[in-house]
Write a structure and sequence with these properties.
It is a single chain. 35% of the residues lie in helices and 19% in strands. The protein is an alpha+beta fold. It has a 7-stranded antiparallel β-sheet, sandwiched between helices. Strands 5-6-10-8-9 form a 5-stranded antiparallel β-sheet. A 4-stranded mixed β-sheet has the order 1-2-4-3. The two termini are 18 Å apart. The structure holds flavin-adenine dinucleotide. The site of flavin-adenine dinucleotide has 38 residues, from strand 3, helix 5, strand 10 and helix 11.
């Protein structure tokens, strides 16, 4: 891949940037190549990559870019699956992984973090003081807090604890013009003026660059208890989940894996999700809290499992539970055994529509002829629907495109969301207008134009239609890939 790259001489404005910032501005082939793609594996070369050593460097880059209308794409670790971190229009990439300081205030229960800190590092730092940072994306060993804030990332804990947005107290960073701003401060309450902190959360690097965040922590739950349940089929499993929530049980984790996801995870890890229950969909549940709280909910959960499940079993100990979550985290990558291309959707479906959605997926599998393993977080309706196909097979490509359109139309018709946690990026742009009326899109564009009048930040994303399935992907192995 590298051999095909042509070294582009830096333009006058890039040279000017380098004079200002020195060695943190990289124009070598390797640096540009590494910043050209994210987990979507779409690749567009930037002219330069800037790796700030301090927050102020970001302001310098943006001010100059704004003056000269240079496109700028911010990146954390590039784990996004939507193409959101790909520099579609070239220009400059700001790589924030060098800004990764973390400080915990153990009295206030707050974490002061720089945008490039990984989620796993924040969790570990909090845990060392007896605190808990709940957002738990499967990519947490790699992805950054900045990326999580930009995408409003979720994960397995969403139903009980909420998502990234629920833990952000304050943000600092730069407007696309290069001006420094602070939204909120290190207090648990803030009602002073428009809440532009929440506007930045989930804005996918289009409205500003986060350099620092103050995160809310909660006390670490002292005990956990894990239950595996298996069901006759997917419709029965999703119906049972609704029955569980009607009992007002709030598991910390409630993960559904359809039978196809179970098979993928088992083949990839050569271990069994639920021994003796091969070929069945499962729901994996975890309670968290004090032993007293767990005992109360455990009784309800076991009575429910006896009534609803084909089989159930408690995890023997913490090791077995952790092993289970590790297998669960592998299931997405493992799906590449079913095809070399994946349309990876993260829709959110209202709970009352669970069974209807499961029946729809059955029909979609039959009509498309494609494997569509699905798993997800049942406490918040966030289901990961994975349409697998072979890129070299034109009939499969057509079937995948038709299937993703039907999926999105159905999700919106059922009152759901085309994305529950990954965001729009490039991959969901064909469907943004299914979700939002013209007036809503105009309102979003008005905000974009107000904050980024020259349109330099992450251009081409969210609003312009980009059909990912029509664009080549690069063949590169990322650290979080299964194979
Ligand atoms: C194996 C795997 C599992 C995953 N599991 C989950 C999951 O469970 N839940 C979930 O929600 N997501 C998941 N994801 C998706 C991804 O990890 C998240 O979207 C994550 O938030 C991206 O973080 P990042 O640091 O990699 O950001 P990047 O991929 O580098 O960037 C993502 C977007 O954020 C913008 N951005 C990044 N940093 C900043 C910043 N400091 N300021 C402004 N904008 C910024 C970028 O421009 C881009 O638009 C998974 C991905 C993989 C590969």
């Amino acid at each position: 891949m590298l051999a095909n790259l042509v070294a582009v001489p830096p333009s006058a404005v890039t040279r000017q940037l380098r004079r200002r910032l020195g060695g943190i501005v990289r124009t070598d082939r390797q640096a540009r190549w590494e910043a050209s793609f994210d987990s979507s594996k779409l690749s567009y070369l930037p002219a330069a990559v800037i790796r700030p050593r301090k927050a102020a460097d970001v302001g310098v880059v943006l001010a100059l870019a704004n003056r000269h209308r240079v496109p700028v794409t911010v990146r954390g670790r590039g784990t996004t699956l939507t193409g959101g971190a790909v520099p579609l229009r070239g220009g400059w990439v700001i790589d924030l992984t060098g800004l990764r300081r973390i400080r915990i205030d153990p009295e206030a229960g707050m974490a002061f973090v720089q945008a490039g800190a990984t989620v796993a590092a924040v969790q570990a730092a909090a845990a060392a003081h007896g605190w808990f940072y709940p957002p738990d994306p499967s990519s947490k060993e790699y992805c950054t807090i900045g990326g999580n804030i930009a995408c409003n990332a979720g994960g397995m804990h969403g139903g009980r604890y909420g998502v990234t947005r629920d833990y952000v107290l304050a943000l600092k960073g730069f407007l696309p013009t290069g001006e420094w701003v602070e939204w909120g401060t290190a207090t648990r309450k803030f009602s002073a003026g428009f809440n532009l902190r929440d506007l930045w959360i989930g804005s996918e690097g289009l409205l500003g660059v986060v350099t620092d965040a103050v995160l809310k922590l909660i006390p670490r739950p002292p005990a956990r208890w894990t239950l595996l349940t298996a069901f006759a089929d997917e419709v029965t499993a999703l119906r049972a989940a609704r029955a569980l929530f009607a009992h007002r049980v709030q598991p910390a984790i409630c993960e559904f894996l359809d039978r196809y996801s179970v098979q993928c995870a088992e083949r990839a890890t050569r271990s069994s999700v639920f021994p003796g229950q091969a070929g069945r969909p499962v729901i994996l549940l975890e309670l968290a809290g004090t032993t007293h709280e767990i005992d109360d909910q455990k009784a309800v959960l076991l009575a429910w499992a006896r009534r609803e499940a084909t089989a159930f079993r408690e995890a023997r100990d913490r090791d077995e539970a952790e092993q289970l979550w590790a297998v669960r985290r592998k299931c997405s990558g493992a799906m590449f055994e079913l095809g070399d291309a994946k349309l990876n959707e993260d829709v959110a479906v209202p709970m009352r529509q669970y069974e209807r959605f499961a029946r729809f997926l059955d029909r979609l599998r039959r009509s498309s002829g494609l494997p569509i393993p699905t798993f997800g977080h049942l406490a918040d309706g966030n289901l990961h629907v994975n349409i697998m196909y072979h890129r070299a097979d034109p009939a499969e490509c057509r079937a995948a495109e038709a299937a993703v359109r039907r999926l999105m139309e159905t999700v919106v018709a059922l009152g759901g969301a085309i994305s529950g946690e990954h965001g729009i990026g490039l991959a969901k742009t064909p469907f943004l207008r299914l979700q939002h009326r013209p007036a809503q899109v105009r309102a979003m564009l008005a905000v974009k134009n107000a904050l980024d009048p020259r349109g330099i930040l992450n251009p081409g994303k969210m609003f312009e239609v980009f059909e990912v399935w029509k664009h080549p992907r690069i063949d590169v192995h990322l650290p979080w890939d299964h194979k």
